[in-house]
Amino acid sequence: MVIFAFRLETANSQKKMNEKELPPHLREDNLSEETKTLISSLPWNKDFIGNLYKYKGCWYYPNTLQGVLNFEKGFKPQETDIILASFPKSGTTWLKALTIALFERLKNIPFFEFNLYLKSSTPDLTKFSSPRVFSTHMPFHTLRLTLKDSPCKIVYVCRNVKDT
After folding, report:
1. Domains identified in the chain, total number
2. Contact 52/46 with Cβ under 8 angstroms?
3. What are the Sulfotransferase domain coordinates in residue numbering (predicted)?
């Protein structure tokens, strides 16, 4: 189960933030009508930030789910693509740093669901030089359908989060 949740604290106690203060992937302001219809049929729960919706066995905030759906519909992998996948807080930064050292040195590695497919359902991926390197927190079973017949490489970090 994947839950994208962040702890927001003041000096003395936790407080609920105004939605405009939240990072874009935690908001509910970028949803298509199709996604609104979908989330109305999904199991949901509420945390101190907002609503979480269960999609394909994973819990997502609404805008993050929009990014996941856009990725599933629109991503066309290339043979030379490299996808870095990991559970949140289980080595993503370390994995990206190693990859940058090997391939990209001066470039940022964008997340599919936070940076690319949240901002646009059809982002311009032609601006990335080959080999393109992307990152995601989507679990492997959710990547499978989109990347099923793809020759691209997936580096998946599977680590016990309790060990971090």
Report:
1. 2
2. yes
3. 80-164
pLDDT digits (tens, 9 = 90+) for 67-104: 999 999 999 999 999 888 888 778 778 888 887 777 75
Asked if 25 is an active-site residue, the reply is: no
Instruction: Report the amino acid identity of residue 21.
Output: E
Domain holding 127: CATH number? Answer: 3.40.50.300
113 lies in which domain range? 72-163
Claim to verify: residue 37 and residue 79 sit in the same structural domain: no
Residues 67 and 132 in one domain: no
Q: What is the pLDDT of residues 99-148, one digit of tens each?
A: 777 775 656 677 888 778 888 888 888 888 888 888 888 888 888 778 88
pTM of the model as a whole: 0.66
| Residue tagged active-site, from 75, 96, 137, 142 | 137
Residues 142 and 93 placed together within one structural domain of the fold: yes
